[in-house]
Write a structure and sequence with these properties.
Order of helices and strands: HHHHEEHHHHEEHEEEHH
Distance between the termini: 30 Å
Mean pLDDT: 86
Shape: globular
Structural class: alpha+beta
Largest sheet: 5 strands, antiparallel
Number of helices: 11
């Protein structure tokens, strides 16, 4: 898919927001990585100008979310939505732009951190809606994931008009019994959604082509989860798992770029924002 086609695809049916429009305006109809990098730099500079010196973690939360008197998140605000709309039009280009060109891009770091906060807030909100029995079921399922040794991929299937279809694909990060990463919150939040409705998940353990992969299947609903029989898993492998779904990888990850860290995007000795922004170097 061409670069411009990617960007237009993600704006269809969505409300227009300034940063996303600016990106497309600078991009024009060009379809190369250099044009995308230039558009990113322009949007990053405008984003830094809009934030006007906000860098503190608590201030960033109140910048992107409605909060209560204790600074706890109530819900995302319009600034958060504008940032995510920008990511939707930009993300198709992200792999094409060198890391060296992105490492000072404050906007990419803020997308990732804002979405981490959104997922954490949403997960806790959803957990409060689960029964004690469902919470125990989620804990048991997570333990099963941790017990599996090897590279792990999770595929989430939702029911459609023609049966179950692939909705998300994600690397199972944070289920090794050792580290705690934001991606685990994201995955558990997606699992809770299935407890609140229904769906199937396929856990693939092992690297393709190196050793025989082990495949496990589960059906989730408001009654908990049950393991799929081997013939059910085989049936999904021959049907739903064979279908191409380019949006599945996009849905199955936090937004933003986890490899970007800008300690302070603003020049310490300047009071005017603009060309002196470190994040625009």
């Amino acid at each position: 898919m061409a670069f411009v086609e990617k960007a237009i695809f993600f704006t269809e049916g969505r409300g227009s927001m300034y940063l996303s429009e600016l990106f497309l305006q600078v991009l024009e109809e060009k379809s190369d990585a250099n044009a995308a990098q230039k558009a990113l730099e322009v949007c990053n500079k405008e984003f830094c100008r809009q934030m006007n010196g906000v860098v503190d973690e608590k201030d960033c939360i109140t910048y992107f979310f409605y909060t209560d008197e204790n600074n706890d998140i109530i819900k995302p605000n319009d600034r958060y939505q504008e940032l995510m709309d920008f990511w939707d039009v930009y993300q198709g280009f992200d792999d094409e732009i060198p890391h060296e060109a992105k490492k000072n891009m404050w906007i990419l770091q803020m997308i990732y951190e804002a979405d981490i906060n959104r997922v954490s807030w949403e997960k806790e909100k959803r957990k409060q809606q689960l029964s004690l029995w469902q919470l125990n079921s989620l804990h048991m399922l997570s333990q099963e994931f941790e017990e599996k040794i090897g590279k792990k991929e999770l595929v989430i299937l939702r029911r459609g008009r023609k049966g179950f279809h692939v909705w998300e694909r994600m690397e199972l990060q944070g289920f090794d019994g050792e580290s705690s990463v934001p991606e685990r919150d994201f995955i558990e939040n997606e699992l809770i959604k299935l407890y609140q409705s229904e769906g199937m998940i396929i856990l693939i353990v092992g690297r393709k082509g190196l050793t025989p992969q082990r495949i496990y299947g589960y059906y989730l609903s408001d009654h908990g989860y049950k393991r799929l029989e081997e013939k059910e898993i085989n049936g999904l492998q021959e049907t739903a798992l064979q279908e191409e779904c380019p949006m599945a990888m996009y849905r199955g990850r936090l937004r933003g770029n986890s490899g970007i860290y800008v300690a302070n995007p603003y020049s310490e000795d300047k009071t005017e924002f603009g060309d002196n922004l470190k994040c625009c170097i």
